[in-house]
Every structure is written in structure tokens, then in C-alpha cells.
């Protein structure tokens, strides 16, 4: 049997359920579960080993956009409030334009994905509003759809203006990690629940045209019928990339995105923001405040560890 080297693997913030010891060779990995406190006391005479192949692992790296590539929650909230003010959107019994405050939006935007579903849920729960579009609250499905569509279109254009202002930068480590993935021959994708035109604008301005054109797959909310946490966008991405879901690694910032990735059969790493830091990320394989100290090699080891554990 080929000789094996020993690698103790415990990257920062690794989920405790994957605390493990690897024995590896160029063609295979053998895995032995151990409590992290007992790694230094391993009996090397007859370890119980499970042989797994990792030759086909980690073929694609998939980024969410809002919250991962850029911290955008406050920008979206500003654009929504500007839209409510522009159309004088007033939910009963208030006579003042609707305002989503930071505390409310931090929770709300992580519960419902996509702009139109957000507004539709809010108006259903709090009452359909009057506005300059409809003097009285719309009652029919067609009028309500028109209200939602108009608000979303205006909000999207306002968001674009904010992005074009030049005051927004990508989150730490994002560009380097994208470049490392492409240099290593990995498939690279972006999957966002946001409107396609706004995501394109963000990518063109924040990652640059060369990186944007170099993406192997790009999907936005317009491209799929169901929004996150539904897994459809990630299942579709795997098909377009021509890879198995288990060979994809997703970078997300919220529990909604985490649920979408895991239900698609993909492993997910969380890079949280100030508004998502307190969410339950128990199903993530690793959790980071940002990507500034995360290398592609770290992600490869994480995914190999998942494959071995399974």
C-alpha cells in the first residue's frame, strides 16, 4: 500500500462536526474522526480508516453578490425608502411615506429574498398602500402587480445610481479569491436573487469587466422562477457549469442563501455581515467575518474534509 503523510486540519472557524485527521496520498485520502482534544494522542498502530476519493472534488466556486461581493444592505434600504418617498407610498393608517428603518430591514431582508417578494409580503401583512400610482389601495391582483413592478423598477434605477457614485467597494478578499480560483482552473460563478440589471451593474463596477466576462456562469433573480431559499438558482448553476452539486462550494452571507445552497446539495461557507452575524449558520462548513484571510487552498481543504466525513 502506498505510504501516507499525516495532516492535522483545523482551520479557523471550522464547524466542530468536521474536526478531523487526514491521511493522504496523491491519489486518495483516508479519514479518521477524532475529538479535537485528542489529536495529539492518536494511536497510529491500527487506525480505523475510510478510503474516499477526492480527485473530483471542488470544481466550482460560486459567489452570492449582495452581502458577499459587496456589503449592500444599507444601499438597498436607502433605494427602497427613496422609492416609497418618490411615489408617496403610505400604508394605512399612516399619512406619511413608508420608511424601512435599519433595525427592521436587517431582520426583514434576511427572511425574504428578492425585492418584489419583500414588498408583496410587507403590504399583505401591513395593508396595501395608497400612492401616486393608485389614490386608493389597489384591490385587484393586476393593480397590485403593477404597483410592485413600478416600485421595484424605480428602486432598481435608484440603486444603480448609488453604485455608479464610486463610493462602493468590494468586500475584502473577494477579488483575490476570484483570481485564485480562475488561475487554478476552477469554474467561477455568481448567483444572486437581485434584479439582473442591478447585479450586472454591481459586477461591472466592483469586480471589473475582465473578471465579469470571465465568469463561467452568472444567474440573477430574473433567471429562475423561485427565489432563495429555494435551491433552484444553485441547481441551475450546476447544470450550466456542467458539474455535480457536491463539487461546488458556495460563498453566502445569510441563512437564506445557506439554505438555498445546502438544499441544492452544495457545501456552503459563510462570510457574514453586520446584519447577518447573529443568524444560525450551523449548516455551514465554515464561518468567516470576511474573506481577507481566506485562500483557495483553505476552501479546498474544507471541501475535502466534507467529502471524507460523508
Structure write-up:
This protein is of the alpha/beta class and 310 residues long. 37% of the residues lie in helices and 14% in strands. It has ten helices and ten strands. The strands form two sheets. It has a six-stranded parallel sheet, with helices on both faces. The longest helix has 24 residues. The N terminus is likely disordered.
The helix/strand order is: EEEEEHHHHHEHHEHEHEEH
Uncertain residue segments: 1-56
Shape: elongated
Largest sheet: 6 strands, parallel
Share of helix, binned? 25-40%
| SS strand fraction | 5-15%
Q: Terminal Cα separation, in Å?
A: 23 Å
Structural class: alpha/beta
On the 0 to 100 scale, the average pLDDT is 84
Would you report the number of β strands? Answer: 10
Radius of gyration: 22 Å
Output the number of helix runs.
10
Major sheet: arrangement of strands: 7-6-5-8-9-10
Nutshell version of this structure?
With about 300 residues, the chain is α/β, with parallel strands linked by helices.
Secondary-structure blueprint of this entry?
Elements (H helix, E strand, L loop, with lengths): L4 E5 L10 E5 L4 E5 L16 E3 L7 E4 L9 H14 L15 H7 L6 H12 L14 H24 L9 H10 L3 E5 L4 H11 L2 H5 L3 E3 L12 H10 L6 E5 L2 H9 L3 E5 L14 E3 L7 H14 L1
Parallel strand pairs: 5-6, 5-8, 6-7, 8-9, 9-10
Antiparallel strand pairs: 1-2, 2-3, 3-4
